[in-house]
């Protein structure tokens, strides 16, 4: 079972203190999809023993700043932190998408080309997409004429 992080300070200490890859799940007790992930996360802990898994309950109002910092807009959401640095996020209750992302992170994209994970968006591609999304938004905003320019 993943360790429950109960305060922003504990989260920050855990994030900055970990070496290697860590996955932090943002969840809520009332979220059915989050509750269904329990067994899957336990499986992932065994399958990907080199990854540390943690949980943060979004019902804890002290976690609101972390949710904003990591742009959590759906639960469950899983942020990937490597050596204290944010690497990306998988949002939503798609077990196979998360499994595919974990496989790609651990084994590289070549290991993620067969079986049920072949159609999953790769984690590294997902991270690249996230990194460029703000640039794309800024570019689109520049290309769309404002009301006075049209």
From TrEMBL:
PANTHER family in the cross-refs: THIOREDOXIN, THIOREDOXIN-1-RELATED
UniProt cross-references to Pfam families, sorted A to Z: Thioredoxin (PF00085)
UniProt domain Thioredoxin: residue ranges: 1-107
Listed name of the protein: TRX2-thioredoxin II-like
Superkingdom of source: Eukaryota
The organism's taxonomic lineage, starting at the top: Eukaryota, Metazoa, Porifera, Hexactinellida, Hexasterophora
Species the sequence originates in: Oopsacas minuta
């Amino acid at each position: 079972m993943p360790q429950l992080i109960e305060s922003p300070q504990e989260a920050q200490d855990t994030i900055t203190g970990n070496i290697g890859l860590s996955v932090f799940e943002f969840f809520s007790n009332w979220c059915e999809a989050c509750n269904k992930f329990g067994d899957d996360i336990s499986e992932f802990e065994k399958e990907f023993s080199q990854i540390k898994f943690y949980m943060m309950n979004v019902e804890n109002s002290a976690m609101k700043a972390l949710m904003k910092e990591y742009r959590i807009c759906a639960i469950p959401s899983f942020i990937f932190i490597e050596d204290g640095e944010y690497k990306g996020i998988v949002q939503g209750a798609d077990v196979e998408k998360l499994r595919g992302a974990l496989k790609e992170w651990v084994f590289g994209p070549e290991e993620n080309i067969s079986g049920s994970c072949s159609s999953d968006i790769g984690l590294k591609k997902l991270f690249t997409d996230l990194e460029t999304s703000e640039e794309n938004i800024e570019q689109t905003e520049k290309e769309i004429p404002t009301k006075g320019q049209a």
